[in-house]
Design goal:
There is one protein chain. By secondary structure, the protein is of the alpha/beta class. Helix content is 47%, strand content 12%. The chain is built from 19 helices and 20 strands. β15 (315-316) and β16 form a beta hairpin. The N and C termini lie far apart (76 Å).
């Protein structure tokens, strides 16, 4: 009996050694790839969806949109819209429903490198960045300071190295570039320098789109190249809640259409301030406003690629402060994705907008709630999902790498459980019971170890004693080390020297000056 126990123990040791050796190698199979199909979480019933949609159509038909640009009025009237006695542009139900039916329902969002292309639509889920943080949490001092153009470039190349950041939209504003045109051009240049993933940016006015597209053409090898592979989307907020159009965003949208640049039309109303405080009322109001953005784009270019980004935002009604984290904002954005997917349109929502100021327990709580809710809802593009802190006022390098690891867990949950003859493992159960008495080191276990599980690199799973011997580092400290490794070594050369010279000769480029 003693010899039998010793053989079993030797078997367990060999099995553990095999598993440790397998774990140390790069995985042959990605257990949590970006782009899984969501839709498992449906906070709204079918009746809820139809009632909210009906209310949104009534808002557009009975109340309508104010402060409409003249060119939009002329175009919309020719497509069936009406002007009421107050000068508000009303969209009849039939007109809106026809536009929804003919709208783009999926499109390829290109990267400059085709390996990064993603298809936006159905219930495929991707996480990426967004935001306009005016402050950055300094990596060395740990204090907030004004964001710079150098920060934006560093964030871009950091995101370039992170698997779960599917696209990079500028996450901070270069406050050291005061001129609006210089800011738009240099923001675009930092994106070109830092990553070949799909990117996104915004523009102050429509006239700034032309020079940026000219720069993109230079980077791609000649005039018209960007239109063939539009790797940058434009972020606009075409509606000023409640129910008014913004003329500058309208002008930018028309310029984007002219150049074939996909549009991310963001409606970011705030509960109890620029939309109803009740969650159902807010969803009806913001759905109407996002439909108004869809109408605005499609009366000029039917079927144009537009991300239907209804981002219901929450304010703390006790203080009026924006609240980026919490159950309500997670619930609202998940419901928004459900509504958009029901309409069959490319969906965009916001998540991970922590109110926390540092990478602490509050940050983890707030980000995980919304990332999981929006991911499981089937949102196609989840914005703000990396690096955002301080209720969108700040961006954090450490948060970027922590969020990237969190998103692997979220993708793993969305992927779900595969149930088939192989995964049920009846033969493995029989072998364990009649043989060694355990599953360690078995072929079925080693295969499942690769296919079923994600092994985090930042999260600590050691015993307290081993953790203490390793320096007792917390998550933020480990993340800071990882950021230093990436930024210290990842210096991509995505612009040829001749192309870089041509861009610098043509534009006032401030990076590296």
């Amino acid at each position: 009996m003693a010899e039998g126990r010793r053989r079993k123990e030797r078997g367990r040791v060999r099995a553990r050694d095999s598993m440790h050796e397998l774990r140390s190698r790069p995985p042959d199979f990605d257990s949590c790839p970006p782009g899984p199909s969501g839709g498992q979480y449906r906070p709204l019933s079918q009746r809820d969806i139809e009632t909210i949609y009906d209310s949104a159509l009534r808002i557009l038909e009975e109340i309508g949109m104010g402060e409409c640009p003249r060119r939009l009025v002329e175009q919309a009237l020719g497509c069936g819209a009406e002007l009421n006695d107050l000068g508000r542009l009303r969209y009849p139900r039939a007109m809106v429903e026809d536009i929804v039916d003919g709208a783009c329902n999926r499109f390829v969002f290109h990267g400059r490198d085709a390996r990064h292309d993603i298809e936006v639509g159905a219930e495929a889920v991707y996480f990426g960045t967004g935001g306009a943080a005016v402050q950055t949490l300094d990596l060395e001092s740990g204090a907030y300071r004004p964001s710079t153009l150098g920060d934006l470039y560093d964030f871009a190349r950091l995101a370039d190295a992170l698997k779960n950041v599917a696209w990079f939209t500028r996450c901070c504003v270069a406050t050291d570039v005061p001129d609006p045109l210089d800011l738009d051009i240099n923001t675009a240049y930092a994106l070109l320098r830092g990553t070949t993933k799909p990117v996104g940016t915004s523009f102050f006015v429509g006239s700034h789109v032309d020079p940026v597209v000219e720069m993109f053409d230079l980077a791609m090898g000649g005039a018209g190249r960007f239109r063939r592979r539009p790797f940058c989307k434009v972020h606009i907020s075409p509606v000023i809640s409640p129910l008014r159009y913004g003329e500058d965003a309208f002008d930018v949208a028309l310029k984007a259409i002219e150049h074939g640049m996909p549009i991310n039309a963001i409606i970011a109303a705030q509960s109890g301030a620029t939309s109803p405080a009740s969650l159902a009322g807010m969803l009806a109001s913001t759905l109407a406003e996002t439909l108004a953005a869809l109408v605005m784009v499609n009366v000029f270019s039917p079927g144009y690629p537009m991300i239907f980004s209804n981002w219901p935002f929450v304010i703390d009604l006790r203080t009026g402060a924006f609240a980026g984290g919490g159950g309500e904002i997670a619930l609202l954005n998940a419901a928004s994705a459900q509504l958009t997917n029901w309409l069959g349109l490319p969906s965009g929502v916001a998540a991970c907008m922590a109110d926390a100021k540092v990478a602490d327990a509050q940050m983890g709580l707030e980000k995980a709630l919304s990332a999981l809710a929006t991911g499981l809802s089937g949102a196609n593009m989840v914005y703000e999902s990396s690096g955002m802190m301080a209720s969108l006022l700040g961006a954090s390098f450490e948060s970027f790498v922590i969020d990237d690891e969190m998103l692997s867990h979220v993708y793993r949950i969305i992927r779900g459980i595969e149930v088939n003859e192989s995964t049920l493992g009846l033969d493995a159960i029989r072998l364990a019971v009649t043989g060694e008495g355990h599953f360690l080191g078995g072929e079925h276990t080693l295969e499942a170890m690769q296919r079923e599980y994600y092994y985090p690199k930042l999260s600590d799973r050691d015993s307290p004693g081993v953790w203490e011997l390793s320096g007792s580092l917390d998550m933020r400290q480990r993340a800071r080390i990882r950021v230093g490794e990436i930024l210290g070594h990842h210096h991509p050369q995505y612009l040829d020297a001749s192309v870089n010279r041509a861009i610098r000769n043509r534009f006032d480029i401030l990076l590296d000056r």
